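Please produce the structure of this protein holding flavin mononucleotide.
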Amino acid sequence: MLDWTDRHYRYMARLISKHQLLFTEMVTTGAIIHGKGDYLHYNEQENPVALQLGGSNPADLATCAKKAQEYGYDEVNINVGCPSDRVQNGRFGACLMAEPTLVANAVDAMRSVVDIPVTVKHRIGIDDLDSYQFMTDFVGEVSEAGCDTFIVHARKAWLSGLSPKQNREIPPLDYERVYQLKKDFSDLTISINGGVTSLEQTANHLKHVDGVMIGREAYANPYIMSQADSLFFDDHSEVLTRHQVVETMMEYIEKHLQQGGKLNHITRHMLTLFMGLPGAKQWRRYLSENAHKPGAGTETVAKALTLINR
Ligand SMILES: Cc1cc2nc3c(=O)[nH]c(=O)nc-3n(C[C@H](O)[C@H](O)[C@H](O)COP(=O)(O)O)c2cc1C
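Below is the modeled complex.
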């Protein structure tokens, strides 16, 4: 998720669950190929991690997929779900649902240069192209190019008239369509996305599909993922408590500060870690009010931690 699931968030998310598959923010092929920064840098502790690409030029996507593999990403995912104007102007994101041949060509080009899985995240439809048949034609053609994993945001997107935020809220969720897709393409790995707010709901979806992607809730309440390893990955080893997560994050923060980083780059992702516990609001407020101050360091986090009742 843009601006949210950066490497600092992902580092924390990995402390909470060892096995969940993490996704980067969408990175455009243009940024990777022509940009000045290192857009692919991540912490080695993050794996398994998928790089999500925004782009539509098969050769560029292939170049970026190759780099992703060299960097050690476990999967490369094409964004066919984002409806923002900026993305549409670049002719990628959700509007690519209307161009299955182009997406298939991209998958083909990418698969010819990497061994890691090439996957696609898409919607159930766009604008008036929202029949079940439209989606299955898309999935059918793209899967013939060798993509065997689809993550389906179970609502359509309106390409004009709605903001990206509204496009995550207004078009109704239709989980049944995604379940049906799995029935009709039983050999493919189909993951569902959209509106999932608990691991209980996750377990229910898993009766129908192969995977569940949790977006906003995993950010708004990251510790819900702490039971994921035992529930879904058969790993019953002890999970870190929230306090242990913070203590480990403090070591990570120290390194970040030594490299010239700022405290709030990291703590902004930690604000909701104690969601629902006594002191959670005070924790959040203290960090929000103090972590951006010049020279703020781990002592600010330690102080915030004293506001949580053990
Ligand atoms: C701030 C924000 C940024 C997002 N950025 C991306 C993105 O870069 N790539 C993507 O595929 N989806 C992105 N999404 C959409 C989510 O991945 C997800 O499909 C959507 O929020 C529905 O799932 P949820 O209800 O579990 O959040 C973003 C969502 C939010 C709230």
